[in-house]
Amino acid sequence: MAKIIVLGAGLIGRAVALDLAEAHQVCSVDLNKKALAKIQKENSAVETINFDLAKSPDYTELLAPFDLVISSVPGYLGFDTLKKILLAGKNAVDASCFPENCFDLDHLAKKNNVYAVVDCGLAPGMDNIILGHLDTKMEVNRFECLVGGLPVKRHWPFNFRSLFSPIDLLHDYNGPARYVENGELVIKDALSDCELMDIKRVGTLEAFNTDGLRTLIKTMQHIPYMKEKTLRYPGHCEYLQVLKSSGFFDTQPIELNGMEFSPIDVSAKILERDWALGNNEEELTVVRTTIEGEENGKKRRYIYRLLDKTDKDKGITSMARTNGYTATAVTNFILKKPLESGICAPETLGAIEGAFKFILQYLEDRDINYRIEESTLTDKN
Asked: What domains does the chain contain, in order, with CATH numbers?
């Protein structure tokens, strides 16, 4: 049994803390007292600490009693939070998926003789782990991941509910989208190349470019084609493109009646109301990861499909389950098999013997079931 501290008690942090508390001593940390009280009501064994992670310059005293730290803070806080964890000399699993380059912290981790597994979510996260595993079995030449979190019931105009911080999502929509084609890095605007996709067990969705490859651009440079796209209900992308092109996502402050404000911050605050998941509202998560390459002299294709829905009994959203339980699976694996110091990408973890099998089984034990299709390709397909 390990002593684990979970930074952040939001939807994902709650799922992480409650899951780990079944086998470990767990402490949940957040500034939101109501979120902490909710976790402790569900499992009184979880210790809670009310703490301002954003304003505290140092985590050394906070983290001292614990064996491992899990960061599930919003993405905009993620990089600075992980930096403070490493400075405190603690190993970490990071589920915040911050936008900054995680490898910029590699020197700090090695200097303090600690490690951090980053991007421990669904995508990025589990799709990287799958790719890392298959990359040890075959010569991969194509990777594509389609992923989306959606409400079961559509709501005009955006047909969307967000379980992440809206400002993080708007920055994703606002930034560049990188993918690899013919071995070359291609950069386009996010929300570009929108196309309709028929997704099994869900129906027709739209897919558009977002910057989801992240660490793969550095670690998987030998793969000539890699792309990630976000899935939404049809129509979502166009509405977001209208807002973006009209300046609602601009980051430079503008002045109105003698006051300055950032358009993207105001937009995020407004959309927070529209995108909030209602009480007892169900949602789903859909993933299709396709990996192709040469294996034992044959062209092979693997497709990993996932359709997960809200756990109504426990009141845990699908997005919290699929992201949070990936993080807890990784946590339990590395507690048994510690890593070398430095920043560890999830695809690097997936290449470690036994990691993929352990994580996949861990998810299956929590009723997160990937449907795996394997086929041999011919010239016709």
From this structure: 3-122+317-365 (3.40.50.720), 126-309 (3.30.360.10)
